[in-house]
Design a protein that fits this description.
Blueprint (H helix, E strand, L loop, with lengths): L4 H10 L6 H16 L4 H5 L9 H24 L4 E2 L4 H7 L7 H21 L8 E4 L3 E4 H23 L6
Helix pairs in contact: 1-7, 2-6, 2-7, 4-6, 4-7
């Protein structure tokens, strides 16, 4: 059974625990680079199961999500209360040819967009963190919540990458 939007939010936020969201986001590109540096291209492109994304697909997803979140936050800041459109991440994987994307280029895209977004977040006045948009599936989401969710999203995918690239145990 698929999780509800509320269950998704709770699960993603639980990944953050008591970590600072901006600190998590700032560290993510380096952590990814460390995790994938020794992996072969074939290993990065191999799906762990037919219905699970490969590391290369996860990296492309993270890079695209950073653009989406940057757009959402800027839209909210420019017009508080603005609608926030959901997207079908699996459709993006197919339509965006994530399996064929260069993992190194995806990391570079993530890093560049992340640096721009972090600079924006650090410039916000306290009241701007409370501005919100209306997500089409999850309802009202403040800039603060979106930034926390993105950090939890990072942790979620870092754990997936770690599991996929972990050495296989032999008996």
């Amino acid at each position: 059974m698929a999780e509800t939007p509320q269950q998704y939010t709770a699960r993603i936020l639980s990944n953050l625990a008591d970590q600072g969201p901006l600190k998590v986001q700032a560290a993510t590109p380096k952590k990814i680079e460390r995790l994938v540096k020794a992996a072969s291209a074939a290993k990065l492109r191999k799906r762990p199961a037919s219905d699970k994304w490969s590391v290369a697909e996860i990296l492309a997803h993270l890079a695209d999500v950073e653009i989406v979140v940057g757009w959402r936050v800027r839209s909210i800041l420019g017009a508080p209360g603005t609608p926030i459109q959901a997207f079908d991440q699996d459709a993006w994987v197919k339509a965006g040819h994530y399996a064929k994307r260069n993992p190194v280029a995806s990391i570079a895209q993530l890093r560049a967009a992340r640096e721009a977004n972090l600079a924006l977040y650090k410039s916000l006045a306290p009241e701007q963190w409370k501005h919100y948009g209306m997500h089409s599936e999850r309802g009202q989401e403040s800039v603060e919540l979106i930034v926390r969710m993105l950090a939890g999203h990072d942790v979620n995918h870092l754990h997936q990458i770690e599991r996929i690239l972990a050495p296989k145990k032999t008996s």
